[in-house]
Specification:
- There is one protein chain.
- About 80% of the residues lie in helices and about 0% in strands.
- By secondary structure, the protein is an all-alpha fold.
- α2 runs antiparallel to α5 and α5 runs antiparallel to α7.
- It is elongated.
- The termini are far apart.
Amino acid sequence: MHVDLSSRPRYSAILYFLGRYRLKFFVILLMTIVSSVVDSLSVVAFFPMFSSVLGASQEEAPGVLGFVSQAVEIVPVTNPVAAAAVLLIGVFLAKTGLTLLREITTAYVVAKIHYEVKRNIIKRYEGAHYQYMLDNPQGALLYGSLDAPSAVSAVMLTASQMATATLRTLTIVIVLLTILP
């Protein structure tokens, strides 16, 4: 069986862009981690509400549940159900705000990369000799200036979405495992 080496994926271009925009991707990764942790806390934020409605004691809750129960006590409301509802609303507002901020930042970074790649290609075409334009088919020139930069930004956007989904799932599983007896 013969394996065509030219059809194998090449990751050097992805690593090149990750290295070139290292700070921007680090900010997205940091925001993704924080957003994932808040997402996982939104799962646990229901515990004080259920405990208050059912009349169960929250004092003996270990780990993350104890932390969330203590957060309810900080809320300046005397009714435990109302305090749990305020905490739940606060967690969901934080989750929504962080998710929007992460999505806006990701869209900005992807658009910035797309713009810079397209600008660099156009600059190369601008500096090329006229014979280069004659020697290459018009379709290849259009592909190089219009479609190729879109592929780079699409890969970066997809990688960001995959990292977000993976980290969100991982943090929720970790939180759920810590609350099991």
